[in-house]
Structure formats: C-alpha cells, structure tokens
Amino acid sequence: MGALPRVERTPDGRRLVVDRLVDADAEAVWTVFTDTERWPEWGPSVTAVRCDDRFVERGTTGEVQVAGGPWIPFEVDACEAYRWTWRVARIPATGHAVTPLVDDRARAAFEIPLYAGGYALVCRRALSRIAAIAERAGEDAVE
After folding, report:
1. Which residue from 68, 74, 109, 141 could staple onto 19, CB 3.0 to 4.6 Å apart?
2. What is the CATH number of the domain that holds 72?
3. Would you say the pTM of this structure is higher than 0.90?
4. Has residue 11 been placed in a domain?
C-alpha cells in the first residue's frame, strides 16, 4: 500500500495525493488508468462509461454513471507524460499519474483537489483494484 495521503504540489497546484506501488511496469498501469472501458472495474464510484474514445487523450469527452445513479459529463483537460486530468460536471476532478520505477514497477497516484479530500478513501480502493488489474496483465504477458 502507498503512504498516507499527503498534500503535494502538482502541475494543477496543491493537491491531496494518494499513491501505491504497483508490481507492473508503468505502461501497464497507464493502460489501466486510460482505458475508459475498464473504469467501472476499478472505480468504486463509476458504474458505467459512455465515451467515443477507448483510451483518453486531451479533449476526450463522455459521461460517467456515478454509483448507479445519474450520468455526469466529463472532459479530459490534459493527457501527457503518464499524467491525465479531467473535469467532471465542469468541476476540476482527480489527476491520474504514473511514475516508472526500477525493476518494472510503478507508482500509481491520484491527485485529489483539496476540497474533495474525503474522496481519498475511494481512491485508495481504486488503487488496489488498479494494481491487481495491472499486475494480472503483467503475469498474463509472461505466460
């Protein structure tokens, strides 16, 4: 598991960061983060996604269904160098970042706006799911 959530300076200003080491390479983790079809697998608050782009890039738009309830529009603001950010209902939401490490491991992180600090628990659960998916993909590639 990662360290306790902490405030860090990010390209979007000060954010609460929740992170985790993953026993998979950065590309595998990045693929899980950016694959819109997989978001419901790892996002505890995401039930479904409607999006024309399978993998996010700057300008990607769509809708997420939150906890089986309403559909909420989203737009990806930035997507480069293993980091993407988005707005949900036009409100700045989480950043998603991957840092390559030695030995084919990576650090996966969510950057949470300070006003949404309570979301850290949801992000912690999502990171566990992301790690499991990315690590399983790495094992499948070896077999």
Report:
1. 109
2. 3.30.530.20
3. yes
4. yes
